[in-house]
């Protein structure tokens, strides 16, 4: 099956995909803020975490179900399959490497799938609060 969009249209569509301030990220950040948890966004740490708690050395990543191959929701694309499989596998390898680097620097890494945040933001906030209380 060929792409229904021409190259210019596809390029435009792909350029609209955000890497920061995604809906699940903003949802989680607002919920954390409402609970009185103050965090940082900008970070030069490996992997550039979406949210950090520098004092407690906690790094939070919000992983998209497609971009990080969620075991519950990921579906292999039907076009350019080889390209996408290779790209997404690189993402997963990079995530593991980033986790290892951050752990070696003394950071705790928390990763949430976008569907976890969308489904039960409160549970995600509670998980962060538990981790903070352990530090």
Keywords:
three-stranded mixed beta sheet; Endonuclease, Chain A; mainly alpha; 135 residues; 5 helices; 3 strands; globular
Characterization of this structure:
The chain is mainly alpha-helical and 135 residues long. It has one domain: VSR Endonuclease (Endonuclease, Chain A, 3-Layer(aba) Sandwich). 48% of the residues lie in helices and 11% in strands. A hairpin with a 4-residue loop joins strand 1 (51-53) and strand 2 (58-63). Helix 2 (23-34) crosses helix 5. The chain is globular. The N and C termini lie far apart (52 Å). 19% of the residues are buried. The mean pLDDT is 92.
How are the secondary structure elements laid out?
Blueprint: H1 7-15, H2 23-34, E1 51-53, E2 58-63, H3 81-104, E3 108-113, H4 114-119, H5 121-134
Parallel strand pairs: 2-3
Antiparallel strand pairs: 1-2
Helix pairs in contact: 2-5
